[in-house]
Amino acid sequence: MINLYDLSRDQVESLLASWGQPRFRADQLYGWLYERRVDNFDAMTNLPKALRERLVAETVLGTLNLVTEQRSKDGTIKRLHKLHDGQLIEAVLMPYADHRRTACISSQAGCAFGCVFCATGQMGFARNLTATEIFEQAMFFARELQANGERLSNVVLMGMGEPFHNYDAVLEAIRRIMDDLGIGARHITVSTVGLVPQIRRFADEGLQVTLAISLHKATDEERSALLPVNKRWNLAELISVCHYYMETTGRRITFEWAAIAGENDTPIEAHKLGHLLKGLMCHVNIIPLNPTGGYAGQPADLDAIENFIDILSEYGISATVRVRRGIDIDAGCGQLKSNVINPKTIPMTS
């Protein structure tokens, strides 16, 4: 079966031409896919019945199979999808009072980078997702929101996996989210644990997509204990490429800081971080640690975080606390987890 979401506009035209259809039928079909975003062929009322029947027989509208859906008391929706080979991934939709609708999507089944406080990192790595598998997660949310008179406004690649470990597919998916879903680059965020060569490459792409970097500690010894990737690319290398990114793009970088009680929420840690980031055009996004079964740390309290923010301001660094969403359904940052089939060990190479 042909997944229509795998096909470009030209490929849709070629497919229908091979079926003896005129060119305008491809335009009509493409409009149903990406403008009206219907979820079944019967809704494509301006296509001949015979063409619709052939589409039903030979093509599909996506390959992600919804297994379960959970809804948080705060309105967050978490979905578990099964891929064609049985791998499982999760995607999250977060509604906000200001009418933003943000999809948090996955780029891999599992993750190879083993961040100790992250549920995905604790589960191991199976494989990269294709660009279409990444795109479809956002597409399905966009389609359902549109049917309810709403729109998907933001996409963050902060779900399962390390996006820059699957660089080419992620960039293709981002371009499709921009082109086919009409979401502006500044409303898309891609997060990385700090893959230095890919950050440099991303700086040269010329995109206005927001870059977020998981930092969490401000010295090499301490960061390596939480994020093993730091043993491959240390903080000096990471901060150097951040300066390159800032100078190349003129864009501010977001640093993510999971605030762990007694670990990285103290005044001493705030001063370390201030010294590390001073001179960078950046913002620190502080996230009280979300609980996972494989890590014993506890979230920092808000008083400690507010003091932490005040100290960072002395270094000219802005910081805010991220609103925690979907914690009751394990949909928060670092909580996404499923089983992987045949987990693999992948070396951290450039």
Task: Write out key terms for the chains shown.
350 residues; alpha/beta; DNA polymerase, domain 1; TIM Barrel; 10-stranded mixed sheet; two-stranded parallel sheet; 11 helices; 35% helix; 19% strand
Short description:
This protein has 350 residues and is of the alpha/beta class. The chain has two domains: 2-60, DNA polymerase, domain 1, CATH 1.10.150.530; 65-329, TIM Barrel (Alpha-Beta Barrel), CATH 3.20.20. It has helices at residues 9-18, 23-34, 49-58, 119-123, 131-147, 167-181, 196-203, 220-226, 235-249, 267-277, 302-313; strands at 2-3, 59-60, 65-71, 77-82, 88-95, 101-104, 108-110, 125-128, 154-157, 188-192, 210-214, 253-259, 282-288, 318-321.
Q: Could you explain the architecture of this structure?
A:
The chain is α/β, with parallel strands linked by helices. It has 2 domains: 2-60, Orthogonal Bundle (DNA polymerase, domain 1), CATH 1.10.150; 65-329, TIM Barrel (Alpha-Beta Barrel). Helix content is 35%, strand content 19%. The chain has 11 helices and 14 strands. The protein has helices spanning 9-18, 23-34, 49-58, 119-123, 131-147, 167-181, 196-203, 220-226, 235-249, 267-277, 302-313, and strands at 2-3, 59-60, 65-71, 77-82, 88-95, 101-104, 108-110, 125-128, 154-157, 188-192, 210-214, 253-259, 282-288, 318-321. The strands form 3 sheets. A 10-stranded mixed sheet has the order 3-4-5-6-9-10-11-12-13-14. Strands 1-2 form a two-stranded parallel sheet. Strand 12 (253-259), helix 10 (267-277) and strand 13 form a beta-alpha-beta unit. The longest helix has 17 residues, at 131-147. The mean pLDDT is 91.
